Amino acid sequence: MKRILVINIARIGDLIQSSPLIAGLKTASEENEVTLLYSRHFREVAEAISGVDRLIGVSLHELIAPLVQNDGGIRVVYRKLYRLVEELRSLEFDRVINITHTHYSAILTSLVNARDSAGMTMNREGYRVVNGDWANYYFNSCLNRAFNRFNLVDIHSRIGGVEPGGRLFLDINSEARSRADSLIRRYHRAGRKLVALVPGASTSEKAWHPDRFAETVRELGRLVPITPLILGSQDEVELGERIRAGSPDAVNLCGRTDLQLLAALAERCDLMIANDTGPMHVAAAVGTRVLDISLGSALSHETAPYGKDHVVVEPRIDCYPCHVRMRCPHRNCHALIEPAVVAGLADSLLENEEPQSLTENKNLHRINVYRTSFDEDGWWELTPLLRREPTITEIHNHALREMWKRALSGKPSWTEDYRKTARGIGRKLRDSRRVSEEWPSIQSASSPLGEIASLAAIGLAASRELASIPEDDNGIDRITRLGALLKEVDNNLIRNSYEHPEIKPLVAQFTYGKGNMTGWKLASLADQTAVLYDNLFDWSRALINWIETIYGGAVGSPAGKTACSEATA
Prior knowledge:
Elements: E1 3-8, H1 12-17, H2 19-28, E2 33-39, H3 43-48, E3 54-58, H4 60-64, H5 73-90, E4 95-98, H6 103-112, E5 116-122, E6 128-131, H7 133-143, H8 152-159, H9 174-187, E7 193-198, H10 210-223, E8 226-230, H11 237-246, E9 251-252, H12 259-268, E10 271-275, H13 278-285, E11 290-293, H14 300-303, E12 311-315, H15 332-335, H16 339-350, E13 367-374, E14 380-384, H17 392-407, H18 419-432, H19 443-467, H20 476-499, H21 504-515, H22 522-555, H23 563-567
Parallel strand pairs: 1-2, 1-4, 2-3, 4-5, 7-8, 7-10, 8-9, 10-11, 11-12
Antiparallel strand pairs: 5-6, 12-13, 13-14
């Protein structure tokens, strides 16, 4: 038996998105004992996650608040932390998987003294260390969100070394189902579709205007008979009332449901229309289709409903998505999504008519519409439902996704066997999107990668030379020269990544790797550095091949060799 601790001190959606990781750990071995360390504020959610053997709740507020008090605050916090760490250590965990990605969780991970850890931790000197390629990628994606094409479920599951399994997991008890049935009998009329509305969100930037929800309900009601149920927290009662006032058939249940009742009601609904927020993930977990309106900092590629055949609407505007900590002064993206469009999409979903494609019109010009699905390798993805000409950046992101899928999972970044897959992705783009006869030159995408490959080759050679210097060799001049060369290479890598943002993900992954090196002996550090430069060189060349081959499939002809690909062959 292995004792495994999963650290996920986060909100409703994050906890539910970790359920495939926990299920995967149990699937790997029924004897695995999984403990979940969670935020005590979300106990209801933690208790509903399938496969957890033990729950340990913590309160960050209880640990932080005493520090700002004048009377013995530090002693209080120390005693609380001491008791928590003693409890965790007493369980003698074989492995800790930290998917919270905060310094607080990193400190806890290091204090547990488990035999193995994945995710962020601290070394004995107090420096942050990130264990695992996918854990490093998570931090990379936070800095380079525009280039991330992986759902957080896929990332977090693979940090723990498991396959997600294609669904979320949440247990609903029979008492909650009985309460839900009672409410539905009270408000729902036969022959109508039951539609849940979730107008709230963690920030106002992510919340579509309540008047637009109300207008959507009215538009949808003209297309198909519905009973709208407005779901939300106690803080969102007035928000629900505003929607109900604009759509009299709606039932305001904000503040009247606990987590179990919310899940049971969502399970009974034919559709949920929601902002990117916790109840959206609840609906996805219980098998209800979701029409997700992603706004503000909610990047649909990261956090849209995990599962198949949900529909996502997002603004098509340069400033989307916002930075997570940004408070937007204008919220222009909110006005781009028209209630009539959302109502039309909802009608298609309620009638089980897949919106395979949409005709471009003025209401669709400034939005993207996607359907959630899984690719041939079982990875979640978004499939566009609007026919638009792909950009070079889009080609780059498809290529980057395919390269990372393999490179970070211990497979070759590129082999000739991948050529069929790459051309198939290109053909899929061509078939589902408009492709003009004259595209921008593919050289614009691959040329910066050639420069990165050249710099990585220089760094690799210098690192190997450093590693070959005997310990008793007093060649300080040689060491100094090679050290200066490596510093120049790294500075040029960073400069290139700022000049060409599309290569930032490669350079960031390399940089995070350097931050996780261990030891102090020159030969060992040089060997570790050589591996990182070798990886960067491999990623750059592989990405060129992915880009060019996908491009060739999209334009319907073999991709020609560029000067860049020939130089790095």
